[in-house]
User: Which sequence fits this backbone?
């Protein structure tokens, strides 16, 4: 059996949340402190690619720098 393995591997000392966050490409939103907000901060429109760190002014389906598909989950789908 030489099938492509699917799933997310959790390294020793790594939490399941960290493993999922590292396996799934996503936009990391910038935020600023705001004492009037319930959470104490507000998310800004600008964000960065979790794969290459490219900064963009709004979320896109693909990163314009590295081409990573933000809708695709690595290890879970083909």
Assistant:
């Amino acid at each position: 059996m030489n099938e492509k393995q699917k799933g997310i591997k959790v390294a020793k000392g790594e939490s399941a949340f960290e493993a999922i966050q590292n396996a799934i490409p996503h936009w990391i939103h910038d935020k600023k402190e705001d004492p009037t907000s319930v959470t104490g901060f507000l998310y800004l429109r600008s964000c960065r690619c979790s794969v290459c760190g490219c900064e963009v002014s709004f979320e896109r389906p693909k990163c314009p720098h590295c081409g990573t598909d933000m809708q695709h989950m690595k290890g879970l789908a083909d």
